[in-house]
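LAB NOTEBOOK - FOLDING QUEUE
OPERATOR: T.R.
BATCH SIZE: 2
PURPOSE: Compare the predicted structure-token outputs for two unrelated chains run back to back under identical settings.
PRIORITY: normal
REVIEWER: second-year student, initials M.K.

ITEM 1
FIELD SEQUENCE / FIELD STRUCTURE:
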Amino acid sequence: MMPNIRSSTDLRNSYNEISAFCHEKREPVFITKNGQGDLAVMSIEVFEQLSGRLELYSLLDESKAAIKAGKKRPLSDVMKDIKQEIADGQI
């Protein structure tokens, strides 16, 4: 898939078209300024999904580090704690 690259002038003059592309294709549009890469524009939905993935990857990295450090708990204990947090309205 080829990236969609547009100029900052296009962003100013064709905002609605760029917005529609980002929403319909669920892909970013890369904006250049004076011929150089400057911005990546995407829909809020795609941004939130990307942010969620980054947060998940960060949590997975923390988990891997905890496992390597010997900080493990039985799954049954973890599930019990999660169920209690749900019951308490914390989740």
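ITEM 2
FIELD SEQUENCE / FIELD STRUCTURE:
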Amino acid sequence: MKESNGTETNLRWIKVSVSIIALAIIITVLKELKSIFIPLTIAILLAFAFAPLLRFFRRKRATASVGIGITVIIVFFTFTLGGILVYTGLASFASQADKYERQLGATINELSDKFEMPISSVKTYLKNNVNWMDVFNKVPITRFISGTMGTFLNFLFKLLLTIVLMVFFMAGRERLGVRLVKVMTKEETVHSKNIFKNVEEQLISYLFGKSLISLGTALSGMFYLAILRIDFVIMSGLLLFILNFIPNFGSIIASAFPIIICFLQYGFGWQLFAVAGSMIFIQILWGTIIEPRYFGKTMNLSPVVILSALIFWAYIWGVVGMFLAVPLISSISIIIREFPSMRFITALLSDD
């Protein structure tokens, strides 16, 4: 009897050890081969998101190729237009860097006059001997912008790769039902289709709702920035829209950009406090009040789980992983929920 218990304990520890080793291998593979897995993951998510469009064309008695072709056009032009707007904004910012360099130097000199420094020699040195334009040039902002601009062709390549993979998944899904019927029982087929349906509904609900909320946040921010005559209104709006898809941290980063621009443009004037106040108000309105009421219990994910997923996927895939964190953890949660043996993990993920 004791030998049996000892054997079971050893087997349990072996399973745990193998699971940990397998998880480490999976994480390493995902991280090292992210150039392949990122387009693959995005393609799968897009295939689920645009599945209702394909069914619409099927009801209209159009061929699957017509629906897939229209989907490809929508995805390509949407992502390309977004990429062009972002890179154009970065180029515009880079072209006006000299103006902000001069304004930054003038602001720092003005601050040194307003706040009397205890050591006059330090103040004199900062005002007369430090070339603030040279200091600004040494900050890697310009290198970051030029590096980002240089990746535009890489962006287009990955977009085309994603679209190709998406087409294969969308075309393959049309034949998936037939293959499931051949290899599974009727109950198993229905169960599998329910999983796909739940993942699809969750993704569509999240993407549609998050897009509306991000659009509202961006338009509200652009309205206030235009009234206050802050530079780069469109660029700020794009950042408010795009980065709002990153939970918790995205809205903070997006709001910081117009505040920094306002500081470089007006210094510590009333405009800076007006912009900061308006950004805080907008984020509270859309992110804290409207968004929770819209989603309610739809996502059914614990805030701790969302934060953990954000950190995990940021470590694996960087910024792209931060955008994909919520859709991925939501899809994984739906799949796990369908297996009774994993109820413990489901309980940890849910917000009930």
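REVIEWER COMMENT (ITEM 2): The CA atoms of residues 300 and 349 lie 8 Å apart.
FOLLOW-UP: none requested
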